[in-house]
Amino acid sequence: MLGDLINPYYLQVGSFIMINIILGLSIYITLSSGQLSLGSAGFMGIGAYTSALLTINYDLPIIVGVIAGALVAGIIGILIGIPSLRLTGVYLAIATLGFGEVMRVFLVNWESVTKGSVGLSGIPQIGRELLKFSRDSGFSPMSIGLKNNQFVYLMVLLILVIINILLIWFLIRQNKSRVGRAFAAIKMDEKAAEAMGINITYYKVLSFAQGAILSGFAGALFAHVMGYISPADFSYHRAVDILIYAVFGGSEVIWGSIFGAAFMTLLPEVLRFISEYRYLIYGLVLVLMMAFRPQGIIDVPLLQKLHLTKRRSKHGSKN
Amino acid sequence: MKKVLNKGFLFMAVLLLFALTACSGNSSEKAGKSASKDGGKVSAKFGVVSYMSGPGAAYGEAITNGFKLAQKEINEKGDVHIELAIEDSAGKQEQAMSAAQKLMSDDGITAILGPTLSTEMNVVAPEADMNGIPIMGTSTTAEGIPQIGDYVFRNSLPEALAIPAALKKAVDKYGAKKVAILYGNDDVFTKSGFDTMKKAAEDMGLDTLTIETFQKGQSDYNAQLTKIKGLKPDLILCSALYNEGAVIMDQARKIGIDVPFVGGNGFNSPEVIKIAGKAADGLIVATPWFADKDDTKVKDFVKKYETEYGKTPDQFAAQAYDALYIYANALKNAGSTDRDEFRDALAKTKDFPGILGNFSFDKDGDVVMDPTVLIIKDGKFQQFE
Predict the structure, then answer these.
(1) CA distance B251 to B280
(2) How far is CA B21 from CA A10, A14, A272, B15, B28, in A?
(3) Which residues of chain B make contact with A172, given a CB cutoff of 8 A?
(4) Do B15 and A121 count as a contact with CB atoms less than 8 A apart?
(5) How far apart (Å, rounded) are the C-alpha atoms in residues B240 and B213?
(6) B4, B107, B93, B11: which is closest to B51 by C-alpha?
(7) How far is A54 from B148, CA to CA, in rounded Å?
(8) Which among B110, B24, B134, B160 has a CA at the least distance from the CA of B338?
(9) For B64-79, what is the mean pLDDT?
(10) Would an 8 Å CB–CB cutoff place A262 in contact with chain B?
(11) Which of A11, B261, B264, B384 has the smallest number of CB atoms closer than 10 Å to its CB?
C-alpha cells in the first residue's frame, strides 16, 4: 500500500496541483481587492525565465533563483500596477492580457538570452539537485527503501506542500488583518473605501504586486520542476487556465481558488481512461458549472454549511 | 491562528488523499499483465505518449494508427508479442510528463514511444533517462534530442539532416548562389528549422541576402515577399508549417516570384498542394517518407493503411509504423524485457530495412539514413533528380 502511494505519477500530479494552487492564489489575491488581472501568465513567465537564466548561467542555487524570480516579477508587477490603476474591470483585464502577450513576444524575440521560441532546456531540476545533494552528504534513498525517482518526487512534493501551507496561512492571516479588510472594502465600493480613509492606490498596488510575486514564484517553481520552459508555456491559454481555477472554485473565498486549481489539474488525469474524450468532459463541466453555480463551487454560504468557518458569522454580528 | 493552521492541514490532507486515490483506479489492473516470456516468445509492453486531443490531434491520430497497424502485423507474425499502453499528452508538457510518469511507474513497461512534440520530449526524456527507460521519439525533429541521454533515441529524420540534403540538391540543380530566408519566429519547430537553414546556407558558401520573419497565424506576407523580390534571390529558404507556407507560396507567385522554395519538414504535406494549387509548384523538401515510392514494402503499407483507416498515411504514420518494427526487432534480439538489455539491443540497430529506407542509429541514438528529396511539379510530389 505504501509503495503504491509513493508512485511517482501521483507525486508528479500532486506537484502540479501544488504549483497550480499557487497560481490560483495569485489570481485570488488580486481579485480580493476587486481587480481582474489576466497578466498572471506573463508574470509567471518572468519568474520562470529569471530563475532559469540565473541558475543556468550563474550557477546560483535554485532557492536564490526562485526568490529572485518572484522578486523580479513583483517589481515589474508594481511598475505595471501603478499606471493600470486607472483602469477597472474589463479594461484592466484587457490591459493585463496585453501585458502577458507582450511578455511572451518579448521572450520569443530576445533570442540572444532566451533562445527564442526553442526554449530553455537543462534547467536544474529541484528533485535531481536534491538527490545529488543527499548523495554527496552520504545519504542514499535506498536506505529508507525508496527508489531514486520515488525519493526525488516525494521530496519535491513535500517542499511544495510546505510552501503552500505557509502561503495559505499567510494569506488567511492577511485577510483578517488591516490589509485584508482594506482589500475587501475596496472590492465592495472603491469610493466609499476612499471616503473611509483607506489609501486606495497603496492597497491596490499592493494586491496587484502580491499577485505578481505569487505568479512569478509559481513560474520559477514550474521551471525547476519541469526542467524545460519555452515562451509558449506562458501564452494567454495559461492565463485563462489560471482564471478558470479561481472562477470555477469560487473567487470569493481563498478555498475556492485552491479547490479550483486542484480540481482542474486533477480532472484531466482522472479522466485519462477515456483518453480522447476527456477534454470534452472538462469543457462540459465548465459549461454546467457556469449555468448552475456561477459564483463557483465554494462560496461563503457553503463554507458556513460545512462549519469550516465561523468567521463570517462573527463578522455578521459585529456589522 | 491555530485553528487556521489546523484547517489548512486538514484541507491539504484531504486534497492529497483525493489526488492519490483518484488516480489509482486503472493502473493496478495493468500491473497484472506485466511482461513475461512464454515458451521462448518474448512478450513486452511498450508505453506510448501521443498528442491525441487538442489542436494537433491529427498528428497523434496518425502516429497511433501507425503503431496499431504495426502492432497487429507483428503480433500476427508471432516472433514477439507486443502490447501498447497509449496515453494522451494533449500537446502540453505537463500532461506529457504526467502521462510518461504514469507509464514509467508501471514496472511492466519495457520502453516508451513518443511523445509527439519536441517540446514535450525535452521534458520527458531527461526523466526517462534518469529512470533508465529507453524512449524513442517518432516525430521529434528538433536539435539535440537524442543527446539528452543514453536511453533517448529517435527515428524521425532531424531537420539537421533533411534541410541540408534538400538544399544541396537544389543548389546543384539550379546553380544557386544567393538565397533569401523566411521563417516563423514564434514556433519551436520553424525556428529550429531556420537555425539549420542558416547554418546549411553558410556551410555551402551561399550568400544570404536577407532574413525575414513572420508570426503564427499571419495571413499577409506581401511586405516580406516584396522585399525579397527586390533582392532577386536564386532560391528562397522557407521554414514554415504547411498552412502558413502554402499561403506564402501563393502570395509569392502572385507578385511574380518564380524561384524554387526549399522547405523544412513542416512544409512537407500534401495539404500545401490543396491550399496553394498551382502556386505550390517548385517546392523542394527532403523527407524520409514518400508514399509513391516504387517499393513493394511501401506499397503494401499504403494499401493496408488505406483499407484500415480510409486515408493515405503521412510521414507521421510511417515513422510510427517503422518505430514499432525497430522496437520489435530490438526486443527479438535482446530476447528479454529487461530495460537495459533492450536498450543495448536497440542501440545496435543497423541497416534495419523499414518502409522509410535502411535505418541505423549513430552513437547518440540519432538517425542515420538517406532522405528522399521531393519537388512539387504539376500539382504532385515527385522525386527530385
Answers:
(1) 10
(2) 9, 12, 14, 10, 12
(3) 4, 8
(4) no
(5) 10
(6) B93
(7) 21
(8) B110
(9) 91
(10) yes
(11) B384
pLDDT for B287-296, tens place per residue? 888 888 878 8
Of the listed ranges A92-101, A117-126, B201-210, B304-313, the least confidently predicted one is: A117-126
Any residues with CB less than 8 A from the CB of B170 and at least 6 apart, and which?
B176, B235, B260, B262, B284, B384
Predicted TM-score of the model (pTM): 0.79
In sequence order, what are the residues at sequence separation of 6 or more whose Cβ sits closer than 8 angstroms to the Cβ of residue A142?
Answer: none
Chain A partners of B54 at a C-beta cutoff of 8 Å?
279
- Which helix H or strand E contains B136, and what residues bound it? strand B135-137
Average of per-residue pLDDT across B242-265? 90
CA distance A298 to A260: 9
Place of cell 463557483: A296
CA A283 to centroid of chain Cα atoms: 21
Distance from C-alpha of B356 to C-alpha of B155, rounded to nearest angstrom: 10
CB count in 10 Å sphere of residue A130: 18
Residue B372 three-state SS: strand
Pick the CATH number of B42-157+297-368 from 3.40.30.10, 3.40.50.300, 3.90.550.10, 3.40.50.2300: 3.40.50.2300
From residue A123, alpha-carbon distances to A68, A135, A238, B2 in Å are: 15, 20, 21, 38
Helix (H, G, I), strand (E, B) or coil at B4: helix
Domain range summary for chain B, segments of one domain joined by +: 42-157+297-368, 160-287
Q: Which CATH architecture has domain B160-287?
A: 3-Layer(aba) Sandwich (3.40)
Using a CB-CB distance cutoff of 8 angstroms, which residues of chain A are in contact with residue B126?
125, 227
B34 touches chain A (CB under 8 A): no
Strand partners, B238: B182, B263
CB contact under 8 A, A108 and B185: yes
Domains B42-157+297-368 and B160-287 share a fold: yes
In tens, the pLDDT along B312-362 reads 888 889 999 999 999 999 998 888 888 999 999 999 888 888 888 888 888
pLDDT tens-place string over residues A165-223: 999 999 999 999 999 999 999 999 988 998 989 999 899 999 999 999 999 999 999 99
Cis peptide before B115 (omega within 30 of 0): yes
**Whether B327 contacts B347, CB under 8 Å:** no
Mutate: best of A5, A9, A120, partner B, most B CBs <10 A: A9
Give domain limits for chain A: 2-235
B12 touches chain A (CB under 8 A): yes
Query: Would you give the DSSP letter of residue A44?
Result: H
